[in-house]
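TASK: fixed-backbone design
INPUT:
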């Protein structure tokens, strides 16, 4: 585990917000869950390192560094 991961606010009780559930999730439920996760990211002290890591390894799932999968794909696209 990287040093930044131990300081991440998504660890512990809130981790379920950052990944879709294994059961069906309605669009409005997904949007609420993602908004709550992104709000945690906004105040996280390691958000930059988290996003850099996720983009660097092309993480395909979850919210990392305050961005969803499609958000990260657009960031990772070459200019």
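OUTPUT:
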């Amino acid at each position: 585990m990287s040093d930044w991961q131990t300081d991440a606010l998504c660890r512990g009780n809130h981790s379920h917000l950052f990944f879709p559930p294994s059961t069906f999730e309605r669009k409005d439920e997904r949007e609420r869950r993602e908004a709550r996760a992104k709000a945690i990211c906004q105040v996280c002290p390691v958000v930059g390192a988290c996003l850099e890591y996720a983009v660097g390894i092309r993480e395909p799932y979850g919210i990392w560094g305050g961005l969803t999968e499609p958000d990260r794909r657009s960031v990772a696209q070459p200019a």
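COMMENT: The chain is about 50% helix and 0% strand.
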